[in-house]
Amino acid sequence: MQIHAFYTIRTTRQTSLDIQPERLQRLAVFYVAGQLLGGFIGFGVLKLITPKHIWRPEDATGPGVCTTVPHPDLSPFTAVTVEFIITSVLIFLCCGVWDSRNAKHHDSVPLRFGLTITGLALAGARFSGGSMNPARSLGPAIWNGDFEHHWIYWVGPLLAPLVVTPFYRIVFQQREAEPEETTEKRTEEFPLRTNNV
């Protein structure tokens, strides 16, 4: 789950998750802090156990290992746009999964998320680094000291749920259920055949 998922849960009206807004706000603070701290500690452990010459050889220039940076030929605006688009696709998936109308269709959710994130990361990596989450970019930036264009990985991914979630609510707004009488009438008009005649 991403940092921006809490905003998505909070603003998706037809959510199948039963979480009170006050509790969600408290959880969000701890969750965001945990993700940022986890990214920092996790990358620090990785750096600790990996030989120093792999991280940044003496004659190397440019960003450190695992630091998300935009392609040198792209403008920062293009990189923000790519991050916004790939994060938007991920937010659409979150909204669809958490929509109460899909509460019975959670059998392959891990597979859906895994394949979607893999595809989006591969698609965006060449252009912007394919971060989709500020916590993913913060740890390597701090440890490597590479903060050039780091704002891209906060603006793009955090702007996506602000735009996509209300859009999802408007476009896929839950319609009123049809009365049961109409449904019964339809089944009576077209009965199923029980014999093979």
Automatic annotation (TrEMBL):
<dbReference type="GO" id="GO:0015267">
    <property type="term" value="F:channel activity"/>
</dbReference>
<keyword id="KW-0472">Membrane</keyword>
<feature type="transmembrane region" description="Helical">
    <location>
        <begin position="110"/>
        <end position="131"/>
    </location>
</feature>
<keyword id="KW-0813">Transport</keyword>
<protein>
    <submittedName>
        <fullName>Uncharacterized protein</fullName>
    </submittedName>
</protein>
<feature type="transmembrane region" description="Helical">
    <location>
        <begin position="77"/>
        <end position="98"/>
    </location>
</feature>
<dbReference type="GO" id="GO:0005886">
    <property type="term" value="C:plasma membrane"/>
</dbReference>
<keyword id="KW-0812">Transmembrane</keyword>
<comment type="similarity">
    <text>Belongs to the MIP/aquaporin (TC 1.A.8) family.</text>
</comment>
<feature type="compositionally biased region" description="Basic and acidic residues">
    <location>
        <begin position="182"/>
        <end position="191"/>
    </location>
</feature>
<feature type="region of interest" description="Disordered">
    <location>
        <begin position="178"/>
        <end position="197"/>
    </location>
</feature>
<keyword id="KW-1133">Transmembrane helix</keyword>
<dbReference type="Pfam" id="PF00230">
    <property type="entry name" value="MIP"/>
</dbReference>
<dbReference type="InterPro" id="IPR000425">
    <property type="entry name" value="MIP"/>
</dbReference>
<dbReference type="InterPro" id="IPR023271">
    <property type="entry name" value="Aquaporin-like"/>
</dbReference>
<dbReference type="InterPro" id="IPR034294">
    <property type="entry name" value="Aquaporin_transptr"/>
</dbReference>
<feature type="transmembrane region" description="Helical">
    <location>
        <begin position="151"/>
        <end position="171"/>
    </location>
</feature>
<feature type="transmembrane region" description="Helical">
    <location>
        <begin position="28"/>
        <end position="49"/>
    </location>
</feature>
